[in-house]
């Protein structure tokens, strides 16, 4: 029978353990344990066999004293070898047992990170769909990477509330195959709702040529649009039939508090004495084309800020106000600043803490930023001008709307 060398055997097992990973660990440890079990039994059989062979090989001519001496000499030697093998095997079993306790195979947890897949209306994030109003409130854009809480992938069938969305990476590139236009509603000769002009009265261009876009009838009915309304339309490219979905209807009344009805004497209702509100006329020469302006505060007077940025051809007005929520309002300050090019902080309508936080975040993200303590169109226009010129963030003004 072949003699087992304990040191070599243990060293070989250790080498095998070096190649064990989470996928094969359970099978490997079971195999090693089984082999080690038989190795112990083989060592015990070998010891018994070796003792019998030694006894049968004694020479007849040897004296009893010589035989006794040889036997006493051999027994301790075998005992030492057996003890060494047993000790090495015990150490090896400790290694296996320790590894088994600390490297139990566990299913790898799915990574909770999803890409925002923008649709013409709304967006899909993982298995969840978010409406257009939710997308705008959260400040989401196609290609943004977000996390969901709770993560739907951790549940086989998730039927709870919409998971909370947290943006972890902003995609600066807009959706390449989706065109969005802010346009004025009109009607064609067949009494269908169409759009011919952008909100700034410039013609809508398709492939560089003025074009008429037919609006989806169902969307027009659902959004109760009328001629003259300002809407956002969207379509995939190429658009062979010049048709578009109505993704949003802009209504400044939604962002203002309900007017208080005041009863006046009958004589006060005279057309001669009524004054018409004039549209805002720019007092400074700067162009905000392709720039997004964020107003931090002043949420109840969005229409006034909208007039200012529209007069300078801004791409979009973003709004954040900790005291105001609803349609068109960003729900997260950090997200709103990430998507803005210019940040205007309205000091008289937000808390000191929020104002400092907004300015700090804007500086960290290298945004153009300024602040004003008044809320007149001229004060807002001047604040934007200071931001563009990177002048001091705050300068006192006195243009106030009562």
Description:
Residues 43-62 have a biased composition (Basic and acidic residues). This is DUF2325 domain-containing protein. There is one protein chain. The protein is α+β, with helices and mostly antiparallel strands and 402 residues long. It folds into four domains: 6-102, no CATH class; 114-169, no CATH class; 178-250, Nucleic acid-binding proteins (OB fold (Dihydrolipoamide Acetyltransferase, E2P)); 279-388, Rossmann fold. 34% of the residues lie in helices and 20% in strands. It has nine helices and 16 strands. The strands form four sheets. The chain has a five-stranded antiparallel beta sheet. The longest helix is centred in the N-terminal third of the chain and has 39 residues, at 64-102.
Cα Rg: 40 Å
Low-pLDDT runs of 5+ residues are: 73-80, 100-109, 253-260, 272-277, 398-402
The CATH superfamily title of the largest domain = NAD(P)-binding Rossmann-like Domain
Strand content: 15-25%
> What is the subunit organization of this protein?
single chain
Count the domains. 4
- Specify the CATH class of the largest domain: Alpha Beta
Q: Count helical runs.
A: 9
The outline comes out as elongated
Q: Helical percent range?
A: 25-40%
Order of helices and strands: HHHEEEHEEEEEEEHEEEHEHEHEH
Q: What is the number of strand segments?
A: 16
Largest sheet: 5 strands, antiparallel
CATH architectural designation of the largest domain: 3-Layer(aba) Sandwich
Structural class comes to alpha+beta
Kindly report how far apart the N and C termini lie: 107 Å
What's the overall average pLDDT, rounded? 76
